Each structure stands twice: as structure tokens, then as C-alpha cells.
Amino acid sequence: MDEHFAKIRTQLASKLANQQMHATTLLAVEETLKEQGAEITPTAYFATLMSLLDQQKDDPEVEEMRAAILNLLAIVFPNVPVSVLRSQYTATLSVITTILALQPPPTAPSLRSLVTCLEYLLIAQDQTTWNHTTTLKALQTLLILSLDSRPKPRKRAQEAVRNIVTRPPLMMLVHPGMKVVVQTTLQILKESGNGVAGAAGAKDKDNATQMILHTLQLVRMVGKAWPAEQFLPLCDILLHLPKLNNAFLTSSAFQVFESLLSPKDSPDAPAVVHQEEPAGQAPVETMDQIASRLAKVTEVMTAVLELKPNANDATLMPLWLDVVRAGFVESSRLQKLMTAGGHGAQIPQEAVVPLIQLFKVIFPNLDSSNPVSVHNATVDCLKNLISHCITDEMIDLAVQEMKKNRGQQPDKKKRNVIDTISTTIKGGFDIRYQSSWLGILDILKTLFERLNHAANPLLVSFLPLIDELRFTPAFTQKAHLDVVLSTAISTVGPRIFLDTLPLNIDNPEERKRGRAWLLPLLKSSVTNTELEYFATTLIPLADRLNQKAQECRENGMMKKVYETLIGQVWSLVSGFCDLPVDLEMAFTKQIAERFSNVLYSVPDLRPVLCQALTALVVRNQAIVASSETDEVLERKFLITKEEASRNIELLQQYARPYLMVFFNIFQATLPQFRGYLLEVMRMYLSISTPTDLQETFSAVLVQLNTALTTVQPPVQQGDAPPVSHNLMDLADIMVPYVDAQSMSNLYSVVASLFANDADAALQKKAYKIVNSMAETETGRVVLKTNLEELMRNILDTTAAATATAKRARLSLIGQVISLLEPTDLYFIPSILSEVVVATKEVNEKTRDVAYALLVAMGHKMKAGGVISSERVGDMEGGAVETPATISEYFTMVTAGLAGTTPHMVSAAITSLSRLLFEFHKDLEPSMVSEMIGTMHLFVNSSNREIVKSALGFIKVTTVSLDVEVVRGHLQEIVGGMIRWSHEHKGHFKVKVRHILERLVRRFGYDDVVAFVPEADKKLLINIKKRRERAKRNKKNGNSGMDMDGEEEEEETDAKKSTKPLYMQTNFGSAYEDALYGSESDLSDDDEDEEGAEGKAQQKKSNKKKQGAEAWIKEDGDTPLDFLDRNVVSRVTASHPSTQTARKVKDLSSAFKTSSDGKLMIEDSDDEESNGAGEEEEIDETAMEMDQAENNYLESLRSVDGFTRGQGGKIKFNKTNKRGAGKDDDTEMTEGGAGPIRSKGVSGKDQRAPAKLLGQDFKAKKAGGDVKKKGRVDPYAYVPLTSLRKGAKEGLSLTNKSKQDKRKGGKPGRRS
């Protein structure tokens, strides 16, 4: 509502009278509410607007005013409380019905607003109100409007009826108004149907048809709320409509059928919402209601099957298929509900979905002679029937019969459903269905997915058929076949799949196809299968391939092929380890040792093996934690929760040996490639027994102590890290899983490394390990026990902290702060100076941690406690206990302003800025005022680093503090920083300008300019003009102009404040937004008269400069020689195709044409005078730059081109038949006196290249050359060089071509 009203308020100056009326009315209502002192709420809007509407409800002369009020009410009604709408129901309904009865009737916009008001008014009423006649009459009024001849009012009324009946009162399954809807629609359909059948004229027949179509549209929208007892009467009428031989009526009837038969929970169906319904009290359909609906759906679908249209009908057949799909899917859903409720025996036999009959009736629609729309609808229908109507009982029966009839031919008359469907799909690969093969493959894929593991043995016979089709050269859609094969692999299993379609890659025999292309499909599809098959079949296959690779040492190509195949075979291990069904039997000691050996010996296979071993644990843990029953899990995954638990127990036995393997590999792997090892180690640590964990950790700790006491040689870049570093990483990984005693032992080892500044990496790892301890409950207990020692250790090692370990050290300090007791707050002043200086670190992440730590310390101080001065390291004086407050904390930070170095002072100012932004509401105004006054001294400092931080403090102050607090220091702020407005170095001028713009926005121009010296007022005047220009552009609707005005800023802040903190994407960097953001969006150009278009063009140009690109021009298909010294001349800053297009456009529009099509070339003076008033269509600046670039490149590459060397001497491009574009060593003076030698010229004699010949004659605002007074005519003077000797068809000095000379004719005429 607020957004709509905000938009309406801006339309006060609109050129449209209706928009002006809306804005005027809204502002008048709001002004009235303000005068009355009432709170502006939806209820207040509702009361005022309804009172105003009641006064003008029957006055025909105020139609515009009434339309404006109704529009505002349509916006207000959805936000009015239900209690208000119920209490004011009678009066409101009286006003609405009075307006609806006016003559002439309301306009379409007013009618839509009335419908909206009436809709929300009726939705809010309870069951008692719906028992009144007036309420039902109001609903009848909406029903009449839903059949209106005007499209927009009709559609809005239909939507209103749908929204009303799909929101029944509390604890009611069917809306009480649905009775009126049913009676009205059925009566109209009957009467209109009879009118169509017995119409005397075409006009009466068309009117009756239109009425039926409108009514069917309404029924389709309310179909989900249609009562079950009125289902059959409606279906009888719908089944009668196709007999009227009207395609539109038949199509609409099928659409209504689909809406009625679709599941109630369909995503396309409007949900039935109950008013004010408590959670968990939604009325549920009873079993009797489900059975009744099932019987009616069965009866309707029996009749629908008899209405099958012609298969060639591209309009009706897809609609009929949609009805069949929706009806039988709904029937299947209802049957599943009854079966789940224990009433499966009550399902009538005729209600069972006749899948065999349906496939026989529907599948022939895929004939190649039928339209594509029929093919698509048929495929969609059959896929849904397979997915929803094939029951588990059908699948089990088919499996039993196949096992019973193994080796025997089944009786065709007693085939089960699955067998019949399979046979039908196989017949679809006949030539008559060729155009539908992709759809049939999609149906087959759906059947594989539905049968899941039962696809073996039910669908194995399809595999040779698909394989044969894939090797058919005429079939080009092999990607679709691969999708079906992938689904078959995941359902049938790799054992049966590869037995049916063997790879034939290790020993291919003649007449057997090699299928190495199956390996990538297997990798992406194998899951939930037998691990034993990989161990007994595929690992020996990889060994045989390895033997063949060793035999092919002389044939490098074949060796590479075999090595690739070996890698592809081993890559399948991750799929076989993805929830294997035989883990207890297949994962033996031999296979575990083989995996370990491969991990050691083949580094390239380590990632895939680690991924496989991780999957063994993860998938079994997921089964154990699943909420599904064992029956469901066994049908889906062939495994139960008990079996998954036993699998995890089996893996626990191998956890410690595998951890030792992982640890050894970890130490031999470079840090940047350890990601997969970290994951698998954490997984096996999580399932290890406490005893194994204790023994493993003890071994690591012993080795760590030994490595720390051993002197290790320096490590070169690129080598593996030292042993001590690796063991520290391993200890860090094991921290979350060890007990308190082990963690305490580890702490005693790593705490001593805080002072080791000789090895920065080792020191950093020590801090990281303690941080990892603090992130676990056990670790926090250990650290709290040793907290005093830890704090003293941190304070003593301040000087030894390296830059590499700074961030980890600050993180540890933050953990210590969170563990502090109120009596241990002495640690904060002791460590504060280090944290303050860390805010000036070069590393951005370190600065972020320092800022966060400053804030955390502030919150700790704010929570209260005691600071004992005798426990603070450098504190002088006696023992004093100071209460911990936020003011005391600011006093501590302020002490840093007295630092001896500019760096320390700057860090203190920056820290104060961050803390003031966070805690300004918790400080006394006097303290804030004192800090602002202190910053005035630092703004006047001569040190740039200090001034830069001080300006940042002022900007945060301007943004975050209240206006009245800043107003008292406005003179000091403006006067102090204005002196830096002339300093360009370090962006001081820009920073000052941004702060001044903020001040002008908050305090106004007059208040700020009063404190600006006269010599500097030009800057404020410029800011004022640019702001006014921006506001004008905004008022004129120029959306391309970025604004920095007050209204937009307030609106943005309001929008931000309405969101919770966790939903704001930049809430963590709010301080950075205040300090570095909030910059002026106004142009920095000082030209006051520059318009919006110029600024937009400037921004566009800047973007081009920032994203500059380069292209290389090529001549046809000739390869470009990058060793050629002239290759640089082919690099251009604009796309060559763009240049070509632009040149063609320029040439086509540069000259006029006569009536016979000839070009008319005029003198430059006439051209300039004639074209002075014409509109410029080309960007002249861009054209000149491109033309200049093209001329320059042409002078370097063309046959007649030349360059000027040292001293302005001309150097011609020498080309001949043997080699074009080669440099000539001959140089000539401009007068042609002869060759000279250019080598050996000193640098001081070298001159800048002169302009090209003819450059002075180039027109500045058009193409071509111009004559200049006192200069020669701009003709092309051809030099008499050897270059003309090789020209084949050029013009000679007699202006005759060689062809003309041979013919003896006249020279060709130029047109």
C-alpha cells in the first residue's frame, strides 16, 4: 500500500486528469487525517475514504471523484484488518451495491475497483454472515459481472469469485457460497446449451456460445473448490458439449475436465486457504469423501474415453490427452490414499486404472503421420501414467511371473501390465514411429526410473535394442540414447548391463564391438550397486590393461590409450562405493589393502579413491539418520538402517589403518592439493572409536614433539613443507575429535610456539590450532582452565608476533575476550594498543578481524565488570579497580591519540571512528562532542596520514550522529577541512567534496555556506547547482541520471530499515559503507551548464576506458606472422567488423543521389552550407578517431604507403611478387635527393613523426578533403616509383587502363 501511495503522490503534476485526481484526493485525505491528529493507518484510510464515498455514492456528476476514491479503496482494502471489515460489513456493502446499481453503470476501471473491494469484504466474513441472503446476493452480483462482455471486468470478477470460494471460513471444507456458484453456472450452461442447439439465427447461436465459453472459464477457475456432490451433474453437461460440433466448446470442455480432475495439491491449482486457521487444524478429507470422489472420477473417465477425437486433430487430441492424464493420475492418487488408510479392499475393480487399454489406445498417436503437438501430448500423457499409475504390486507381480516363466514363452493372453507396456514400447521402434523415437526413448527412460531395481530383469531386453540403434549411422540423436543408457545403468546395475553389452576393450575379438564409450556413462551412472563386481571384474580388467600398456613401450600412442582406459576404469570406484548393497561381503581385507596400495603408488588416482572412501561413510550415515521406514528404504536402495549401521561398524575396523595411510600421503602432498585428503580424514576421524583416536593422536603428538626439537634444513620454494608443519596441520584436523586430556597435551606443546618468530608459518599454525580448540566445547573448557596462562602468553609474545600470524593471533584474542570473566577485564587495556595498530595492517582480512575485535571488546566492556590496574602491564600508580563501561573503553582508545608516531595516531583515530559508529547511542553527548572537538585539531595537522583518518572520522560523524549533535560543531568541521579542498594528492579534494555534499544534504546549503570562506564558496556553489540540476532531471523523469537527493536517500534508508539485520547483504560492512561508500553520485565535472546527456555520454566513455579491449585485423585467410615487426600496426582498439559497418554506412549516406541513381558530389563549401541545418546521425568524434586510425594503418600497410623516419625522411613500403609487406632498407629525403643512411643517429637528433601527407586537408566534420585558401588543391599526387611497375590494372599517366590500351578504345567513364 505504501509503495502504491508513494507513486500516486508523485502524479500531482501529471498531464492526465485522472492521475491528478487520484493524487489530489489522496493528499486531501492525508491532510484531513493530520488535522484530526489521527494515526495514518489502513483503518484510518478506510474510514475516511468510505465516508467520502458515502457522500457521493449516487451523484452522477462526480464520476471522476468517485473513480479516484474507489481506486484508493481498492489499494486500502487488502490491508484493512478482518475485524474492521466484519464490523463495517453492512454499511460498506450498502455503498458498494448502490454504486453498482447506478445508471449509467460505472466505467470499467471503477468496476474493477468495486470488484476488488467487494472481494476482500466477502473474504473477511465468517460462516454466520454467509447465512444471510444479502451476502449471497452480493456473490451473485459478482457472478453476473463474471459473464460481462467486457474482457477486463469479466476477468477481474472471475478472479474475485475464485479467491472467495477458495478461502472458506474456519473449519469448513466447502465454501457456503459455492452452492450459489454451482446453481448459477449449471443453469446458465443448460440454458445456453439448449440455445446453441435450437438457435434460430447465427447471432443467437453466437451469443449462446459466448455465454457458455465465459461460464466454462469461470468453472475452470473455481474447479478446485467444486463440491463433490455436484461433480456428476457438471460432467454430464460437459460431456454433452462436444456433441454440439463446436471446436471452441469442445476445447473449453476438455480444459474444464482437466481442471476438475487435476490433483488438489497440483502446483497449478489455487490453494484452498482457510481464514484465521490455527496450525494443524486444517480439515482433512474423510475416507468416505475420498471413496465417493474416486467413484465419480471413475465414472467420468469411462465416459471421457468414449469421446476420443481423431488422432490427426491437433487441437482436440492434446486436450483430450490432458484430460486422460489428469483423470487417471487423480484416480491413482485417491487409490493410494485409500490403500494407505487400510481401505484398499474397498477400491472397486472398475476404478483400477486400465493401463493396458490406455497404452493400446494412446500409443498409436505417435504415428509419424500425426501432428507434432499430438506427439508431445501423447509422450507427456504416457510418462505420467507410468510414473503415477504403475503400482508396486504390479511391479512385484511382473517380477514373480518372469522368474516363474524363465526360459518359457509367456502366454500373450495373460500378459501382465509391465510386460504389455514393454512390448508396446518395443513396437514403437518400428519405422512407422520413426519421427517419434525421441519421445519413445523418453517414455522408456521414465519406465526405467519407475521400475528402479526391478528393471533387472524386466527391461534388460531393451539394452541390445538401444545398442543396435546407437550403432546405426542414420540415427544422429545419440545423446538421447546415452541418457536412456545412463538411466538403465543406474537401475539395472553394471553387472547385468556389462554382461549384456560388454566393453570388449582388453581383448577385442573380430566381429565384436568395442564399447569404450560406455566408461564415461558408467562413471556418472553407477550407484547403489554391487562393490564385489568392481573387485572381481573391473580391477582385474585394469590390471590386464596395465600389462598391455607395459608391453607397448615402443608404441607411445597405444600406451597412452591404455593408460587412459586404466584411469577411466578406476574412476568407476566412486560409483561402486556410493551405498553398495554388499559392503559387508565385498569390502574385505584384500580390497582394503588394494585401495591402500593404489593410494601409495598411483598419485593420479588418489582423489577418486578418497572420494569413494568418503562416500562409503557419508551414504551409510545418511541411511541411518533417515526418517523413512525400512520398507521404503529397502525398496529404494535395497538396504535397511540396521544394515547401514553394520556397514559403519565394518568401516570402523579399517579407520585407523586408513588414517595412517592418509597421514603419510598428506605429508607427501603439497598444501594446495590436499583438499580431498582433508575431507576423507575428517570423515574417518568421525567414525573412529575413542581408543583408536587416542592412540592415533598420541602417535601424532609424539612425532610432533620430535620434529619440533629437530633442526630441519631450509625448504626451497615448491618443495614439500617440513615435517613439523605437516604434523601441526594433522593435529589441527584432529582437534574436534579428541578428548580433553589429549587437547590439553596439545595445548602445552603449541603454546610455546607463540614466541617462535624464526618460523612464521609454524607460529601461524600454532595460533590456528588454539583457535580450533576454542571452536569446540571441550576445547573451550581446556582453554578456560588455562586462561590466565594463555593471556599472559599472548601479552608476552606481542613483540614476537609475525605479520603472517597476525590475523590468526587476533582471532585467538577474540576467542579469549569471549571467555573473559567480569573480573579479568584487565586483559582488554593490556592488549588494546596491539588491536588498534592492527587496524592499519596492509592485509584486508587482518583489518576486518581487528575491527571486529574492537567491537567485541566494546561489547564486553559495555556488559560490565572490573578492571584492576595492578594487573595491567604498563599501568603506573597504585592498585585501583575501575568499573568497566563503554565510556571507559573510549577513554582507553582515546589515549592512543597521544601516540609518538603518526601511524599510531592515525590508527587511534580510525579505531575511534569504528567504535563511534557502533556505540554512538551508548555514549554521553558531552563525550561525543569532546571527541569531535579533538578531531578539529588533527584535521589541521600537517601530517597527511593523520588528516586522512581525521577526515574519515568526520565523514562517519556526519553519516551516523544526530543532526543536533553535529550542528554544534558545524563551524569547526567546515572550517577545518575546507583548507584541504585544494589538495589533489591522496584524493583529499574528493573526500572534502563528498563530506560537504553530505553536510548540505543534512543541514541545507545556507547553514553550510555560512562557515565557508569567501575564496572557497565556489565549491559550494558548484555543489548546489549540480544538486539542483539532478533534481530537475529526476522531476523530468530522466531515469538514466543518478541522483543524490534528499528524498531518494530518505527512501533508501527507510527501505533498508524495514529489513532485519540478517537479511541485509551488507550489514557486516556497514562501517565500510559509511566510511568508503555514500559517495556522491553526481558528476565531478565542474561545468555548470553540462546537461544530463553529456554526463551520460561521459559515463559511457569512462566505462569504455575501464573495459578497454583490443582486436587484431586479419587479411582474409592469410595467417598472421607475429614475428613480423609490422604486426603491431594490425592491433586496433575497436572491433574491425564495427569499423567496416560504420564505413559502409558513412559512404552510403555521405552523398546525394540523382533521379537516375548517380552520386552527386558537391564542393565542400556548398556541402557545408547545405548540410548545416541537417540532423547529425553519426557520432562525429568517434568517426574522426576511427578514420584517423584507419588512415594511419593504411599508410603503414598499403602498397603506396610510407612512413617518416628520423629527420622527417620518407621511407616507402617496398613490395614485390616474392614477398609483400617486407621492409625496404632504402630511405629517401622528402625532396627525393637520394638515399641516406639512417643508422647511428643519436637520440637527441631524433624527432617526433610529422603529420602524414594530406592530413591538413582532411575535413573535420565530414568525409573527404576540403580546399583551403592559399594552398594547393587536395589532389592525390602519385609518386614515380617502382611500385607502379607491378600494377596490373591500375591507371597509367595517360588516364587509360591497360585493357583500354590493348583494345584501342577510350578510357572508361567514371560514374
Automatic annotation (TrEMBL):
Residues 1299-1311 have a biased composition (Basic residues). Transmembrane segments: none annotated. Residues 1129-1141 have a biased composition (Polar residues). It is found in: Nucleus. Residues 1027-1062, 1078-1311 are annotated as: Disordered. Keywords: Nucleus. This is Ribosomal RNA-processing protein 12.
